[in-house]
Specification:
single chain, 370 residues, FAD/NAD(P)-binding domain, D-Amino Acid Oxidase, Chain A, domain 2, 3 domains, binds flavin-adenine dinucleotide
């Protein structure tokens, strides 16, 4: 009997294994992934400092000591953008490298890491069978299209809350070398293109937008929109890869019981920015702790849901409100203009988009002031 079986070894799954073994070093933890690591994952590779904090707390050194960029530029193709230094620098690390480091750390701490594509989940009174193998608790960290949520019969994301994004790697444009650049689409927010320099002469470039009922944009359309928003950014790019992002709608649907969902599997992606790695490592860590906590052994799902609410509840509700407001271009324009006027508004917006910030009075004043 495993104390914990984690399905999916991305940031959420590896963090769950790490946190469980940090809390209970003698726990029997199995970490499963259908891929061998290192493996690639479609992502902008932007790692928020908040994610680094969580990982540091888990005893993992997951990013280089020197972040490649400290500035962030936000705006539309037309009109003045805002470009400012962030309060805390963000990191840009290829996911092939970042995720492999986390998996290696989990293995070093005592997790059994195995390549396996999970297909079956059977919930019994006091344990769960994962492909026939018994576990006291299961963490489903198998991403946006994972099987655990479906097999546990937890409702998926609502219509209009899933985005599709594509990324590639290109030589960094000298004009965009010193900053992370985000250019908003004119319509259909949240939709934007990005260029995130990796610090080695390469940039992660990409574009994403919300998928509306039955209308999945084609790859050629995504690339055309990238070129419209960041001209030339993708011209010499390679390694194109696209994936879904289940955006948070404010209230994570974690059920009671022995199956806990973390990261993208719980639709924990910031609806303003598409940031999901911070939420993944935080929720993974909370799930891992709840899974091996003898005080909540009768219902780890309920304890974990409460922990997520405590840590992220208000923030998720605020981002949901702002995402609704931001469907109107004038609101986004007002946000950019207010951030240009005041560093403090810029800082609050970054905190809302990358961390666990709230809709502060000064952001609200900035949005409504116009
Ligand atoms: C194009 C794009 C750009 C993005 N840019 C950023 C960004 O810059 N910054 C940011 O913070 N977030 C970004 N995101 C979001 C971020 O990638 C995700 O939120 C994050 O990867 C979630 O981590 P996770 O561990 O929940 O899931 P994942 O990273 O998707 O990991 C899930 C793992 O589960 C495994 N798996 C799936 N099914 C099974 C199965 N049946 N059995 C076994 N294993 C299985 C997969 O192989 C995978 O390794 C972006 C997303 C996209 C698509």
């Amino acid at each position: 009997m495993w104390d914990l079986v984690v399905v999916g070894a991305g940031p959420a799954g590896a963090s769950a294994a790490l946190a469980a073994l940090q809390a209970r070093p003698d726990a029997r933890v199995l970490l499963l992934d259908r891929a061998n690591f290192p493996r690639d994952k479609a992502c902008g590779d932007g790692i928020a400092p908040h994610a680094v904090d969580v990982l540091t707390g888990l005893g993992v050194d997951a990013v280089p000591s020197d972040p490649p960029v400290r500035r962030l530029r936000l705006g539309f193709v037309t009109g003045l953008p805002v470009s400012r230094e962030m309060q805390r620098p963000a990191y840009v690390v290829r996911r092939s490298e970042f995720d492999a480091r986390l998996v290696a750390a989990a293995r070093d701490r005592g997790a059994t890491v195995r390549r396996q594509q999970v297909r079956g989940l059977d919930t019994r009174a006091d344990h769960v069978l994962v492909d026939g193998e018994p576990a006291r608790v299961v963490v489903g960290a198998d991403g946006a299209n994972g099987v655990v949520r479906r097999l546990a019969r937890v409702p998926g994301p609502r219509d209009g809350t899933v985005a599709l994004a594509i990324r590639g790697y290109a030589p960094v444009d000298p004009d965009r070398a010193g900053e992370q650049v985000i250019t908003f689409a004119e319509r259909g927010w949240p939709a934007y293109a990005w260029s995130f320099p990796l610090g080695d002469g390469t940039a992660n470039v990409g574009y994403g937008e919300v998928v509306t009922a039955g209308r999945r944009p084609l790859r050629a359309e995504l690339l055309a929109r990238l070129d419209l928003l960041l001209p030339g950014a993708g011209a010499q790019a390679s390694d194109w890869r696209a994936h879904h992002l289940p955006l948070s709608s404010g209230r994570p649907r974690q059920p009671d019981g022995r199956v806990l969902l973390a990261g993208d599997a719980l639709s924990l992606v910031n609806p303003l920015t598409g940031e999901g790695i911070y939420y993944a490592v935080l929720s993974g860590a909370l799930a891992g702790r709840a899974a091996v906590d003898p005080g909540v052994a009768d219902d780890p799902g309920r304890a974990y849901r409460r922990a997520v609410q405590r840590e992220l509840g208000r923030h998720l509700r605020h981002t949901s409100v702002v995402a609704g407001l931001a469907r109107h271009r004038p609101v986004v324009e007002a946000g950019v203009a207010a951030a240009r006027r005041r560093q403090s508004v810029f800082d609050d917006l970054v905190e809302l988009g990358l961390g666990r910030g709230l809709l502060t009075p000064r952001v609200l004043a900035g949005l409504l002031g116009r």
